[in-house]
Amino acid sequence: MYKETVTDVFFDLDHTLWDFEKNSALTFEKILSENSVQIALDDFLKVYVPLNMDFWKLFREGKITKEELRYQRLKTTFVRLGYAVSDELIFRLSEQYIAYLSSYNHLFPNAIHILNYLKPSYKLHIITNGFQEVQDKKLRNANIDSFFGQVVNSEMAGVKKPDPLIFKIALQRANALPERSMMIGDSIEADILGAKAVGFHTLHFNAHKEPAHGYCDMIHDLEEIKTYL
């Protein structure tokens, strides 16, 4: 469908190629155990996962800092679970979480396959709101860094998706035109609407079982990208 027009494909990383929820769960399993936190992992994640998404939205909107994000998502989780913890433990868990997260390297099914399929025909890039030191490690440790020409993160750009500037910086660095570029990501707000506003073609990877919408085509498996590219 886009084979004749698209030259550059931009991917989001977390929740699109890199299986954030799976790797995050494995990280929490390790650090909660190491710190003798007496909460079942499933009970912890049931509260933490939606809270983390809420705090990331606040961070994306510039309403909280990176430090506040990392502290408050844990603090609020423990408060809602009625589990008393010291600030010292929260800071330790936060540091360990960042230290260990990128050591788990689970990708979504067919991620490597689709990157190998696309690489000969398109220039591939990453646009991520994740933090540079963590995202670079994820790409390296998952052995997918070699697929991408440009990796643009929000710290480098000074703004976060869906701000048009991060997409414009990515286009400039990739020497690409928006009408010849496609953005593939899981977030309707950050990836799809953000990229569409700048003139990208878009494809929504529905990692969160969201309902149908009219913004762009939706896929549920990365293998489906072959239908479009």
TrEMBL record:
<protein>
    <submittedName>
        <fullName>Putative hydrolase of the HAD superfamily</fullName>
    </submittedName>
</protein>
<dbReference type="InterPro" id="IPR011951">
    <property type="entry name" value="HAD-SF_hydro_IA_YjjG/PynA"/>
</dbReference>
<dbReference type="InterPro" id="IPR023214">
    <property type="entry name" value="HAD_sf"/>
</dbReference>
<dbReference type="Pfam" id="PF00702">
    <property type="entry name" value="Hydrolase"/>
</dbReference>
<dbReference type="InterPro" id="IPR052550">
    <property type="entry name" value="Pyrimidine_5'-ntase_YjjG"/>
</dbReference>
<dbReference type="InterPro" id="IPR006439">
    <property type="entry name" value="HAD-SF_hydro_IA"/>
</dbReference>
<dbReference type="InterPro" id="IPR023198">
    <property type="entry name" value="PGP-like_dom2"/>
</dbReference>
<dbReference type="GO" id="GO:0008253">
    <property type="term" value="F:5'-nucleotidase activity"/>
</dbReference>
<dbReference type="InterPro" id="IPR036412">
    <property type="entry name" value="HAD-like_sf"/>
</dbReference>
<keyword id="KW-0378">Hydrolase</keyword>
